[in-house]
Design goal:
This protein is an all-alpha fold. The protein folds into two domains: 48 residues; 68 residues. The protein has four helices and no strands. Helix 3 runs antiparallel to helix 4. It is elongated, with a radius of gyration of 19 Å. The protein starts with a helix and ends with a helix.
Length: 117
């Protein structure tokens, strides 16, 4: 929040959020897997992880991310910053990002509960 408030366009906040999310994903997914596989190996058993819906989820996430990066790129050339700037474009960008997040969550839930597509 401090990084966002101290900059006219909050560019440093984007790096802060990206770094924080990367650590959360790598530790949140990797650490439990390492712990479980180490535990199972210690018991002399094989630790198998079925692929499930990971490929679908990754594809949807990448598509939403590309749209988000496109929005940030357009803002850089029109507003001269990724975030902040005029209130109208800031609110429109915020609404677009929340919509992308909702699309990702909705498609992931539909896939997990119904087996579609």
């Amino acid at each position: 929040m401090i990084a966002a408030k101290n900059s006219d366009y909050a560019d440093s906040a984007v790096g802060n959020v990206t770094g924080s999310n990367s650590v959360n994903v790598f530790l949140g997914l990797g650490l439990p897997w390492v712990m479980a596989s180490t535990y199972m190996e210690g018991k002399g058993k094989l630790f198998l992880t079925p692929p499930g819906n990971l490929a679908y989820s990754v594809i949807v996430f990448i598509a939403c991310s590309l749209v988000a990066f496109l929005i940030l790129g357009i803002r850089r050339y029109t507003v001269h910053g990724e975030l902040g700037g005029p209130k109208t474009s800031a609110y429109a960008s915020s609404a677009a990002f929340v919509t992308l997040w909702m699309i990702y969550i909705t498609l992931s839930i539909v896939k997990a509960t119904s087996g579609w597509p």
